[in-house]
Write a structure and sequence with these properties.
2 domains; Rossmann fold; 5-stranded parallel beta sheet; alpha/beta; 4-stranded parallel beta sheet
Length: about 375
């Protein structure tokens, strides 16, 4: 009988990276001959007021309560942005329906608990499932505390930060110790776990990097016949980046296409398949995104990375991009180093495939051990 795996990850119908890594991890696990679902657990239990206070602090909790009160006020007629957002959400849900095999369960429902008990393993990750910003009850789900310890596997999750708040460290310590197999996406995450538990864990690449350009291209379709510079920014596009894009556009007769900008109706509503298509055919990518950089590498598209506009949490989140650039020896490909780059469109990717193959081998070795797969059983 085919064994079953439930992927535990962020359920977000608006984040490209989340859906892409979910798709990739499912694809890889299926290649190891498992039946794979993306399990969405509604809740282990509601987050208590003390837990909310612990996570948000007094001011944050007050704001949350006020916002909940405002949300109960009768909604105004839909504006253009709301309609655009609904279209975007619909496209994401369509992708999830076609490719992710989502199963929605609640640990408070007996029948759902029986379904959960039938899974042989739960794999949590990748993405920022261990970000301390999640509610306490959600973090419990992302550490698979609903399942027996021997079924809990972590594949390349990210903390999103380099420091766990002291008030949460005792919880993280217990959750991390109880994982049967543990890995992380960034070296900073491995250090966090070592400091908290004494446990040495491997650093594994984001699952999106386990699929080849050809495997990703299957999902793509032509978006435009013209050559273009792609801007993909999760934060505000810095003025100097936009100036650079306009200068290169004029000089090289390239269009500028910007995705994930709610002010640009033509592209904001686009879904996951469109995201892949835009990266596959771009002449140059300018981004502040981890997965924007990942897909530039996958499709061998010249890119420049810049820091997310903002301080505090955004500064810490840049670490994952620095780690990615270092892994592929692309440290120079940042806006800050623009003066060191002779030709922005000339980027050597000849070494990338070898690095990808090495990292894929390390990842598959980890998964096979965690899932108790003998070499003779696997097709990979």
């Amino acid at each position: 009988m085919t064994k079953k795996i439930g992927i535990i990850t962020i359920n977000d119908y608006g984040n490209f990276g989340n859906k892409l890594q979910n798709y990739a991890l499912k694809h890889v696990l299926e290649s190891l001959d498992f039946k794979v679902d993306s399990v969405r657990i509604e809740s282990i239990r509601s987050e208590s007021i003390p837990q909310k206070l612990l996570r948000l602090g007094p001011i944050g909790l007050t704001k949350a309560i006020l916002l909940k009160g405002f949300s109960s006020v009768k909604k105004q007629p839909q504006d253009a942005y709301t309609q655009l957002l609904e279209s975007r959400t619909s496209n994401f849900k369509s992708f999830a329906h076609k490719h992710l095999n989502e199963v929605f369960l609640n640990t408070n429902v007996i029948q759902d608990v029986q379904i959960l008990n039938a899974y042989d393993y739960f794999v949590t990750g990748s993405d920022q499932v261990w970000n301390p910003g999640h509610p306490h009850n959600v973090l419990e789900v992302f550490f698979c505390t609903f399942a027996p310890k021997e079924k809990r596997i972590a594949y390349s999750p990210s903390f999103g930060l380099t420091v766990i708040p002291s008030k949460l460290q005792k919880y993280y310590q217990a959750w991390l110790i109880d994982l049967a197999y543990c890995s992380v996406r960034e070296p900073s995450g491995a250090k966090l776990i070592k400091d908290l538990t004494g446990r040495e864990v491997p650093v594994l690449v984001d699952p999106t990097l386990l699929l080849s350009a050809e495997e990703w291209a299957i999902l793509s379709s032509p978006v435009t016949a013209k050559k273009y510079i792609l801007l993909y920014y999760l934060g505000k596009v810095p003025d100097h980046v936009m100036d650079l894009a306009k200068e290169l556009s004029l000089k090289h007769d390239l269009e500028i296409i910007q995705i994930f900008n709610k002010d640009i109706e033509e592209t904001y509503h686009h879904g996951v398949e469109d995201f892949i298509s835009y990266f596959k055919s771009a002449s140059l990518v300018l981004t502040d995104s981890f997965h924007g950089t990942v897909f530039s590498i996958i499709f061998s598209v010249p890119f420049l990375v810049s820091r997310r506009v903002g301080e505090g949490i955004y500064a810490q989140m840049y670490t994952r991009l620095e780690n990615l650039l270092e892994l592929f020896n692309f440290n120079i490909r940042t806006i800050e180093n623009l003066h060191l780059i002779h030709n922005i469109f000339d980027q050597d990717f000849s070494h990338s495939k070898e690095i990808l193959e090495i990292q894929k081998g390390i990842a598959l070795t980890y998964l096979k051990e965690a899932l108790n797969i003998q070499e003779s059983e696997s097709n990979v």
